């Protein structure tokens, strides 16, 4: 085919399409109201379908929340526990050492208090006070104030 024949055949196809469209105009005019009614019916039907589906979805969501969600949460928690690395054991010797130190201190304080009470009970109260720096008489308890006062030589250290 030559170039001019191609242009003529394309022009002919256009003319045929226009004439076919013109022939369809009466059919389109008849169908247009039916299409509008079908669109309105589809909108009404979709509203009904949505009204029916909303409670169904609500019920399904409630069932998921009540039955499946706790099981899924438990599964996820169990998986998290399996994945989590093991924590290293803490050294408990510090607590043992601390408890031992407290016990030793309490025992020492109790022994000192008992010794002081025993010494006070054994010493007769003669009413005389020994001079500082002098040795106590044999058979008497040392004066507790002498131990706390100290001498002048002790203060110079």
Can you walk me through this structure?
This protein is mainly α and 157 residues long. It contains 4 helices and no strands. It has helices at 3-83, 93-122, 144-149, 152-155.
What is the compact description of this entry?
Helices cover 77% and strands 0% of the residues. It has helices at residues 3-83, 93-122, 144-149, 152-155.
SSE inventory with pairings:
Layout: H1 3-83, H2 93-122, H3 144-149, H4 152-155
The share of residues in extended strands comes to: under 5%
Number of helices: 4
Helix content: over 70%
- Number-wise, the strands total 0
Rg estimate, integer Å: 55 Å
Biggest beta sheet summary:
none
End-to-end distance, in Å? Answer: 131 Å
Instruction: Calculate the mean pLDDT score and round it.
Output: 78
Descriptive terms for the model:
single chain; 157 residues; mainly alpha; 4 helices; 0% strand; rod-shaped
């Amino acid at each position: 085919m030559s170039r001019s024949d191609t242009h003529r055949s394309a022009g002919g196809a256009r003319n045929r399409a226009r004439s076919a469209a013109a022939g369809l105009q009466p059919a389109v005019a008849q169908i247009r109201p039916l299409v509008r009614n079908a669109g309105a019916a589809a909108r009404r039907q979709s509203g009904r379908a949505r009204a029916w589906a909303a409670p169904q979805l609500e019920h399904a969501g409630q069932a998921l929340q009540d039955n499946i969600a706790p099981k899924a949460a438990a599964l996820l928690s169990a998986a998290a526990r399996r994945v989590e690395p093991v924590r290293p054991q803490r050294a408990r010797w510090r607590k043992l050492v601390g408890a031992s130190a407290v016990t030793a201190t309490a025992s020492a304080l109790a022994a000192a208090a008992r010794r002081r009470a025993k010494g006070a009970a054994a010493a007769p109260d003669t009413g005389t006070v020994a001079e500082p720096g002098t040795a106590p008489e044999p058979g008497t308890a040392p004066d507790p104030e002498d131990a706390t006062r100290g001498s002048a030589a002790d203060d110079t250290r």
